[in-house]
Amino acid sequence: MVTVILPRSLVSLIPGCQRTTEVEATTVAEAIDRLDEQTPGLRNRLVDSGPMIRQHINVFVDAMPAALDAPLRPDSTVHIIPAVSGG
Amino acid sequence: MTRNLLLVGTRKGAFILERGRNGAAWSVSDPLCEGWPIHDLQWDPTTSSIYAGGGSAWFGPAVFRSDDLGKTWSHSSEGMTYGDDGPKIPTVWNVTPAHGSIFAGVEPAGLFRSDDGGKTWAHVSALRDHPSRENPGWSPGAGGLICHTIVPHPTDTARMWVAISAVGTFATEDAGATWEARNQGVVDCNSPNPHPETGQCVHKLVMAAGEPDSLYQQNHCGVYRSADAGGSWTDISKGLPSEFGFVMGAHPRDAATAWVIPLSHPEEGRIAPDGALAVWRTRDRGDSWERQDNGLPQEHAFVGVLREAMAVDRGDPAAVYFGTSTGQLYGSNDEGDSWNLVADHLPPIWGVEAVTLD
């Protein structure tokens, strides 16, 4: 199972969302789709038109920067982290 | 008992204020909508819902909805896209319920419609298909290329006006299937051609009470009125200290009464002229204006007031409210004759809406 770790700000935004979730997925896009099935609306907060990860969201697969089509191993860990920005 | 609420959109979330009873101070909520930047809040009296439009730098655009006066919220931007090859939409600038639907104006300028209470959205594509977007083109103003005002006809579901900064006013009379530019008579003071079909920088558009074809607008280059649904416009800036400003408010019953807040020249700060904050009211459709500064700071008030940050309630006399870009919220219970500070130390205020609950 792939482990997906979401930011606190997203968990508070999406009812039922967990900081850490395990899903069956072979790409980042699939992992997000699985999460969206569990908590509808989540994909739309992470994925923009293109489709592509929103500009100020960073995704890491096993600590390496990754895009939607990045492959996952069965034991991969996906970190989804808001970029450092604001004011 | 009547309750008076103010819905306030800020750079750091939405806030709901409620007037205290027997002269007590207004209560101020904690930041709502997860602290997202919120441009506009609107009240839908048909469903007793609050809608809030904004966008997060991380999580994109959204229209939030609350059916319990702000205790709980849902949100969505499902379908709020120009397609995989189109420009990305960072934020919502206006949300307006009308005739059972909800409309959202977004950046880059466009209009979306929801017929399921805000769960899903569909692009009203004919607006962006207007030929002026290709030629001469739609160019952003300082605030971006934004569809910031939506004015539905009060009874005719086929008619609506929208306003886009640095592009102008558009109207539909066939429920959004086609749109017509309505800028004749409005000057584009930033162009060698002062009277183009489009390119005028409208900052706020309001409808006169009980006269759907009577419109007012605060423009980058003046204040205007129209008696023919925007088909032609007349400059009514004479008597104001500045042609420039953002907000405009219309009286709930008197079509001849409206308010503006003139600001300093756009290249000279866009703040209260000489640091003296004042609202200006017309009682005669803009033929004359009177300064209303009783209770407002008259020195060192170098504040701005942005396009959605004025509201007029339906009281008699009407109460008028406005918020500043430095977080002060002022209110008048006598149609602007005197003013009080309703709240201070809010984040930069972008939108104000007044709600009266009977």
Account of the protein in words:
The complex is a heterodimer of chains A (87) and B (358). Chain A is α+β, with helices and mostly antiparallel strands and 87 residues long. Chain A has a single domain (2-82), classed as Roll (Ubiquitin-like (UB roll)). Chain A has three helices and seven strands, in the order βαβααβββββ. Chain A has helices at residues 8-13, 28-38, 42-46; strands spanning 2-5, 20-23, 47-48, 52-53, 57-61, 64-65, 77-82. In chain A, strands 2-1-7-5-6 form a five-stranded mixed beta sheet, covered by helices on one side. In chain A, strands 3-4 form a two-stranded antiparallel sheet. The termini of chain A are far apart. In chain A, 29% of the residues are buried. By secondary structure, chain B is mainly beta. Chain B has one domain (3-304): YVTN repeat-like/Quinoprotein amine dehydrogenase (Methylamine Dehydrogenase, Chain H, 7 Propeller), CATH 2.130.10.10. In chain B, 1% of the residues lie in helices and 41% in strands. In chain B, the strands form seven sheets. Chain B has a four-stranded antiparallel beta sheet with strand order 3-2-1-28, with no helix packed on it. A four-stranded antiparallel beta sheet of chain B has the order 4-5-6-7, with no helix packed on it. Chain B has a four-stranded antiparallel beta sheet with strand order 8-9-10-11. In chain B, β22 and β23 form a beta hairpin. The longest helix of chain B has 4 residues, at 125-128. The radius of gyration of chain B is 19 Å and the shape is globular. The N and C termini of chain B lie close together (6 Å). Chains A and B meet through α1 and α3 of A and loops of B.
